[in-house]
Design brief:
about 200 residues, alpha+beta, 2 domains, four-stranded antiparallel beta sheet, 4 helices, 9 strands
Length: about 200
Amino acid sequence: MMRHTNCLLATLLATLFAGVSQGDSLIFQKVVNLNTSAMKFDIDQFDLDLIFGDDFFAPTNPVILFEGLVISPSDVGTTYDATAATDPNNFPAAVIRLTDGLNEFVAIRMREDQVGGMLEQRGAEESFFYNHPTPPGPPDFVGSAVSRVSLHLDKFIFSPDADTPFDVDVTLSIFEIPEPVSAPLLVCGLMVVGVVPLRRRKL
């Protein structure tokens, strides 16, 4: 009986503490396609930026994640993460933009990695981009503890002689830290494990 009780206690504690220490969870994911048939790019290396600002084309106060990241077709399948640890200067400001309740703009931009390089950019107002209708709800992720923003390079086709010489798919993922299991729940669990064996002994 004691061994059975100890097993139950160990299982409950493991489950509860797993809830306390669990990692971040996905709250949003979207595939963004950037392509063009009108422009002819000279090189296959591009600066990739994720931009939050008050305007799509010329934001006056942009917050940029992944600034300085250069990608090429050989990087297909790679995931890039932005966190407070990897980008302490820009990530906190990006989290504010993601959770401030203002319907500003978000965009993914790719620019040729050379002087005077041409660019392609896709995005929209947050309410449209995140599919959060406003009203009635907030345009972004108000109340979320955003912990990580990721870009995964799904596809990168660069064929200067093709009808569509440039065709790129990027998956944007946003993660948050879920609320931890509360201390009262932990105490209740311990009480349940402790009380049940006592009742059995009295029978």
